[in-house]
């Protein structure tokens, strides 16, 4: 049993001891901000990803893609990450350690949102509060604070002529492929594209174990909508209860949480966009399902200065661990920012054709200059003159009302007879127009979700007079579904039956650990500590006693055990795993095995 420490310390110790996660490359001293997930952690993380995929891709009817993690420089010129994806860096004059200036201010003053403060003011705050280096204690007053771009740069191929970057968000892989993904959506809005994959940020000071790392996994959904026509299915989440912390409450002296429902929050305008409201609703339900404690969970709206360069509005899902709030997901309204930028910077088409409800009759100006006149008159500039005439006809048709018209091309002015331009106004029938879709983006950090789940699942209690530590993980994400044991390991018949049963359960789709080493009590504790929700034990009574062909099922959190016929085992385990049945129902149906049987 661990001594009482912070939740984070207890978790780091358990995570390392039981194979959840640990600092990577330890044999070579490690590298800050990189973690390896051990067998339990990798299984938990992959279950969280599967649960996310099931809810946000499959059930929403979205498309999942997998794009490369390295992308060429023009992608990030267009997205704004090359210029705007910076954190504030201050270097210690004593030990040379780099620090995030805004974090130093937040950690040592009452200021909560230092990220949005301009650099010059941050320098002043460091001096005014006489902030010191957390590593060596040197005074940081007077040290310059600089913007530091968080992207990892590399070269694509030998040489340095083709710079590339490790993507800082999976989202850009989706945006860049929009011209092809829209084909799969039959060029029709709304549709969503998702991606679960690695993102990389050269964080100035990685911290809190897997909470702020340099390589991590995002699960992102880009919902493409027609802002004038598309609405979410708000009705389906209208009654979901949420704890909101709007920007106005954060700024008020007596600011408080707003306990409300999604329906009311959208109707009252607290959540300004119904799509954001919709995703907050399904996210709230999803987080509860995977085991986040809803008493330690809130949605917080970004303050104006805190929003990313692309976001019009943003809410974060936050979980509380050790008294601190951790951002575990962001829900941003990105408007048409990304698709417009990629449309401007590339030759591809980032729009969607929107059909009018009724075809429209419109007037359109046409110029069709006589090039046999323009050619000899303007020589090599004739084509530019033609383009300038077309552009002018579009912009200012009245310029063609006189006998001649003047245009500028390549810095020179040209005068052209209007007759030669063949200017006319024609009527046309249009069936639709090209629009740039807007994007609503729920963006989840997988490691931070795993961290929260583990922290919120950690429990200590006493069973049969003995202290135990256990993880009350939701069966939806627990690394192992079932532990299968012979009651004693030295009876061959019991061991053989337990091994066969473990194989049968694996074939039925359960992830199973078979364990026959040590006392049965010790084996239960091992599974409790890694959060296995149920253990199945083969004992003598179940072989040949009063209840032949039966086993016991033990529930992790209460340590209660019931005796169940083997023929019902798979169905009953499925029912309690999926939540379709409570363990109480098994207790009502079957014989309860006396406490102490697991000692
Ligand atoms: N595409 C939007 C985007 O990337 P973000 O708020 O920068 O938005 C989304 O990141 C989520 O990714 C965060 O809510 C967080 O859970 C996770 N995340 C961001 N930086 C991280 C880091 N350095 N380490 C671990 N997770 C991180």
In short:
This protein is 33% helix and 29% strand.
Distance between the termini: 17 Å
Q: What structural class should be given to the helix and strand makeup?
A: alpha+beta
Number of helices: 21
Across the major sheet, the strand order is 3-10-11-21-16-15-14-12-13
- C-alpha geometry: elongated
Overall pLDDT level: 94
Q: Which hetero compounds are present in the coordinates? A: glycyl-adenosine-5'-phosphate
Helical content class: 25-40%
* Number of DSSP-assigned strands: 29
Radius of gyration: 31 Å
Low-pLDDT residue spans = none
Largest sheet: 9 strands, mixed
Describe this structure in words.
The structure is a single chain. By secondary structure, the chain is α+β, with helices and mostly antiparallel strands. The protein is 33% helix and 29% strand. The protein is built from 21 helices and 29 strands. The protein has a 9-stranded mixed sheet. A 6-stranded mixed sheet has the order 25-24-26-27-28-29, with helices on both faces. A 3-stranded antiparallel sheet has the order 4-9-8. Helix 2 packs across helix 16, helix 10 (262-268) runs antiparallel to helix 11 and helix 13 crosses helix 14 (382-395). It is elongated. The mean pLDDT is 94. The structure holds glycyl-adenosine-5'-phosphate. Glycyl-adenosine-5'-phosphate (GAP) is lined by residues 169, 171, 201, 203, 212-213, 216, 218, 220, 327-330, 441, 443, 445, 447-448. Glycyl-adenosine-5'-phosphate is lined by residues 169, 171, 201, 203, 212-213, 216, 218, 220, 327-330, 441, 443, 445, 447-448.
């Amino acid at each position: 049993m661990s001594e009482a420490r912070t939740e984070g310390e207890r978790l780091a110790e358990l995570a390392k001891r039981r194979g959840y996660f640990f600092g990577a490359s330890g044999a070579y001293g490690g590298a800050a901000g990189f973690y390896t997930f051990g067998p339990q952690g990798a299984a938990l993380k992959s279950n969280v990803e599967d649960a996310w995929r099931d809810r946000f891709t499959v059930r929403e009817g979205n498309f999942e893609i997998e794009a490369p993690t390295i992308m060429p420089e023009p992608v990030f010129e267009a997205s704004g990450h090359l210029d705007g994806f910076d954190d504030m860096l201050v270097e210690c004059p004593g030990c040379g350690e780099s620090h995030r200036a805004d974090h130093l201010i937040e950690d040592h003053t009452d200021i909560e949102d230092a990220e949005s403060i301009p650099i010059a003011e941050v320098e002043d705050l460091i001096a005014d509060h006489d902030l010191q280096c957390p590593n060596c204690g040197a005074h940081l007053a007077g040290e310059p604070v600089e913007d530091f771009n968080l992207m990892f740069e590399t070269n694509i191929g030998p040489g340095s002529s083709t710079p590339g970057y490790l993507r800082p968000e999976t989202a850009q892989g989706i945006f860049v492929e929009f011209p092809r993904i829209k084909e799969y959506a039959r060029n029709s809005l709304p549709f969503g594209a998702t991606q679960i994959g690695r993102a990389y940020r050269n964080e100035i000071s990685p911290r809190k174990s897997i909470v702020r790392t340099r390589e991590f996994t995002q699960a992102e959904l880009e919902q493409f909508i027609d802002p004038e026509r598309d609405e979410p299915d708000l009705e389906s989440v209208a009654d979901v209860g949420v704890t909101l912390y709007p920007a106005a409450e954060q700024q008020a002296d007596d600011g408080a949480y707003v306990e409300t429902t999604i329906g009311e929050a959208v109707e009252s305008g607290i959540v300004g966009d119904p799509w954001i409201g919709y995703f907050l609703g399904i996210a709230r339900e999803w987080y509860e399902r995977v085991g986040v404690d809803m008493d330690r969970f809130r949605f917080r709206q970004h303050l104006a200065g805190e929003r990313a360069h692309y976001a019009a509005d943003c809410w974060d899902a936050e979980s509380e661990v050790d008294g601190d709030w951790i951002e575990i997901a962001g829900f941003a309204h990105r408007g048409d920012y990304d698709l417009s930028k990629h449309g401007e910077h590339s030759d591809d088409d980032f729009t969607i054709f929107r059909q009018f409800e009724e075809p429209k009759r419109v007037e359109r100006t046409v110029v069709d200059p006589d090039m046999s006149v323009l050619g000899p008159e303007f020589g090599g500039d004739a084509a530019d003159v033609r383009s300038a005439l077309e552009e002018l006809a579009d912009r200012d048709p009245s310029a063609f009302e006189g006998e001649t018209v003047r245009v500028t091309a390549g810095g020179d002015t040209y005068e052209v007879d209007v007759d030669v331009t063949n200017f006319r106004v024609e009527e046309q029938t249009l069936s639709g127009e090209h629009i740039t879709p807007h994007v609503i983006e729920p963006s989840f950090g997988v490691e931070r979700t795993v961290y929260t789940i583990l922290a919120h699942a950690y429990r200590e209690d006493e069973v049969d007079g003995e202290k135990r530590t256990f993880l009350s993980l939701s069966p939806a994400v627990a690394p192992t579904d079932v532990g299968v044991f012979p009651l004693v390991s030295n009876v061959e018949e019991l061991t053989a039956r337990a091994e066969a049963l473990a194989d049968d359960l694996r074939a039925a789709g359960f992830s199973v650990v078979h364990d026959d080493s040590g006392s049965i009590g010790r084996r239960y504790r091992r599974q409790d500590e890694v959060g296995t929700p149920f253990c199945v034990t083969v004992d003598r009574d179940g072989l040949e006693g009063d209840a032949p062909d039966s086993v016991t099922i033990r529930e992790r959190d209460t340590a209660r055990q019931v005796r169940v016929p083997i023929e019902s085992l798979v169905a009953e385990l499925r029912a309690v795993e999926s939540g379709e049945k409570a363990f109480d129902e098994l207790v009502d149906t079957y014989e309860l095995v006396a406490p102490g049987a697991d000692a």
